[in-house]
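Q: Phosphotyrosine protein phosphatase I domain-containing protein, please. Structure only.
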Amino acid sequence: MPTTKVLFVCLGNICRSTMAEAVFNHAIEKRGISTEFEVDSAGTGSYHIGSNPDARSAETCRKNGVPMKHKARQVCTADYTTYDHILCMDEENLRDLKDMAPKGYTATLKMFGTYDPKGDRIIKDPYYGAQGGFDRNFAQCTRCTDAFLESLGYE
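A: Structure for Phosphotyrosine protein phosphatase I domain-containing protein:
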């Protein structure tokens, strides 16, 4: 039974949050602690519900040896009490999550980038940019994953 439930959130759930989910799942698998977690991702917007991850995001994960499998979904009211940690990619996501939050929610809402040891707090949306944005996101997600796991007491 999972002890820690983590939801990664961006705007459309096809680039950043799916990558964060994949990187996190890969990291906990490598550490042999995947049964201790329940992990998912979602978007604050409804634009891409049911879509596969962006091909560039999937390719970036694949070339780094990280499997990715996800269908986009939107954050729902139940997420706020189902998950312990809802980690988003930028300040706009955080504002939207707080605006959407039901009364009495129990999840911790935080920007994933607050865990970046390099202090790179914003995981920028690479959707309209070049491949370099996806590579940068992958590096950020990797650093943030390691630091977040460390904050939970995992090496």
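A: Brief note, in case it's useful. The first helix runs from residue 16 to 30.
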